[in-house]
Amino acid sequence: MAVCGITVIPIGTSSPSASTYIAKVVSLIKESGFKAMPTPIGTAIEGELEEILKLIPKVRDAIYSEGLNRVVMNIYIDERNDKQLTLKGKMESLENKLGGNV
């Protein structure tokens, strides 16, 4: 299991706001069966790495289907082979170190 992050930056929009495009991406991620945690600057995804990597072209295509010709994506991957990673587990670890809710 891996925890990945994806930041999607649509280029060439008619407005500085990207939330319409990001909402489409987050919906696609969730409809694909992944656990997802949207944040103000990206979306965290939990799942098998190979399956998440298959999702990336679908994200790109979702942006292109909106009539845009360019998208920048930052993708980061956190994977361990000694234990399973989950979004919940990573947040609980952080909360424990901070002494409460994040």
Write the layout of secondary structure elements.
Blueprint lengths: L1 E10 L7 H13 L3 E5 L2 E6 L1 H16 L5 E10 L7 H12 L4
Antiparallel strand pairs: 1-3, 1-4, 2-3
Description of the structure:
It is a single chain. The chain is of the alpha+beta class and 102 residues long. It has a single domain, classed as Alpha-Beta Plaits (2-Layer Sandwich). Helix content is 40%, strand content 30%. The chain has helices at 19-31, 49-64, 87-98, and strands spanning 2-11, 35-39, 42-47, 70-79. It has a four-stranded antiparallel β-sheet, covered by helices on one side. Helix 1 runs antiparallel to helix 2 (49-64). The longest helix is centred in the middle third of the chain and has 16 residues, at 49-64. The protein is globular and about 45 Å long. InterPro entries: MTH1187/YkoF-like, Thiamine_BP, UPF0045_domain. Residues 6-95 form the Thiamine-binding protein domain. Belongs to the UPF0045 family. This is MTH1187 family thiamine-binding protein. It comes from Desulfurella acetivorans.
